[in-house]
Write a structure and sequence with these properties.
The chain is built from four helices and four strands, in the order H-E-E-H-E-H-E-H. By secondary structure, it is α+β, with helices and mostly antiparallel strands.
Length: 176
C-alpha cells in the first residue's frame, strides 16, 4: 500500500507499483484505491462458532501507520484500548463477518479508530480488512491457550469438530 493524498502522488504511486510488478515479471493489474482513514490501527484475531465471534486477541499497533508506506509493525496484546472501544471493534467485526456469510472458523480483521474522542465508540471504528484466515507472521506464535494449543492447533481442532471448552488464552508470560 502507498498513501497518495493528491492526483500527482497517486500517479507516482501507480508508476512505482507498475515498475515493481514489471521488475518481478508480473503483468500490469488493476489497482485498488481506498480512502485513508486517520487514527490508531488494531488487529482482531477471532474464531467464529455457529456465527458467534469469540475474540482470541486484540492487538494494538503502537507505531503510527500514516504512510506513505505501510510496513508491518509491532503488535501488542492484550490491548490497552478502553473497554467500550474494544466492544465496538468486536461488534463491528462480528457484523461484518455476518454480512459476508462467514459463520465458522478463523477471522482476522484490521480496524482503524478515528481520533474523534467526542464521538461514541461505534462511530469511531472503521473496518479496513476482514478475512477468513488467521493472523500471519510471528503474531500467531504469541498466542497460546490453556490447553497448550497454538492458534493453528486451536483452528484445526475447531475445524475437526473437537471440544474447545477450556481453551482460554493464557496470559502473556505464562509458562508452558
Amino acid at each position: 500500500m502507498i498513501r497518495a493524498d493528491d492526483d500527482a502522488a497517486a500517479e507516482q504511486a501507480s508508476e512505482r507499483i507498475e515498475a515493481i510488478l514489471e521488475s518481478i515479471g508480473e503483468p500490469k493489474t488493476t489497482l485498488l484505491v481506498e480512502e485513508f482513514i486517520p487514527g490508531v490501527e488494531v488487529a482482531l484475531e477471532g474464531l467464529l462458532r455457529a456465527g458467534t465471534l469469540e475474540v482470541l486477541a486484540l492487538f494494538d499497533k503502537p507505531d503510527p501507520l500514516d504512510g506513505p508506506y505501510f510496513e508491518e509493525t509491532i503488535y501488542l496484546t492484550p490491548s490497552l484500548l478502553p473497554v467500550a472501544l474494544q466492544g465496538a471493534i468486536t461488534e463491528l467485526v462480528a457484523d461484518a463477518a455476518r454480512a459476508i456469510g462467514i459463520e465458522e472458523g478463523p477471522v482476522h480483521a484490521e480496524v482503524r479508530i478515528r481520533p474523534d474522542d467526542a464521538a461514541p465508540p461505534a462511530a469511531r471504528v472503521v473496518l479496513i480488512e476482514l478475512a477468513a484466515r488467521t493472523i500471519g507472521g510471528r503474531c500467531a506464535t504469541a498466542l497460546h491457550f490453556s490447553t497448550g494449543a497454538t492458534l493453528e492447533e486451536l483452528v484445526l481442532r475447531h475445524a475437526l469438530g473437537r471440544d474447545l471448552s477450556g481453551a482460554t488464552r493464557r496470559p502473556p508470560g505464562a509458562s508452558e
